[in-house]
Write a structure and sequence with these properties.
This protein has 121 residues and is mainly beta. The chain is 0% helix and 55% strand. It has no helices and eleven strands. It has strands at residues 3-7, 10-12, 18-25, 33-39, 45-51, 58-60, 68-73, 78-83, 92-102, 105-109, 115-119. Strands 2, 4, 5, 6, 9, 10 and 11 form a seven-stranded mixed beta sheet that branches. Strand 9 and strand 10 form a beta hairpin. The protein is globular.
Amino acid sequence: EVQLMESGGGLVQPGGSLRLSCAASGFTFSRYRMSWVRQAPGKGLEWLSTVNKGGGDTTYADSVKGRFTISRDNAKNTLYLQMNRLKPEDTAVYYCAKVTFGEAGPEYEYGGQGTQVTVSS
């Protein structure tokens, strides 16, 4: 059973920073790409970023490119998201996801409750 425990969220002022963590268990973490996604109030899931198995290749949504950095520590089975220059529109519940590939493209498997990020003055 995939278990993903997100942490590190909180209330931060615009322009501030947060670092999210995702502790993974129940699967061989180092064998999978991993992603961060978020869900803002009243909206659907938004993909933010993906990192490859080794951590050397990353991709970002335009909405967070240049502000957010995804990384991973395979020895600790942990995924990270460093978020800088936060904006009110970044307010959302953030989830990490294990990535697999189906016929229609990437598929995301979630296993946690997410962590709430609120950006407000």
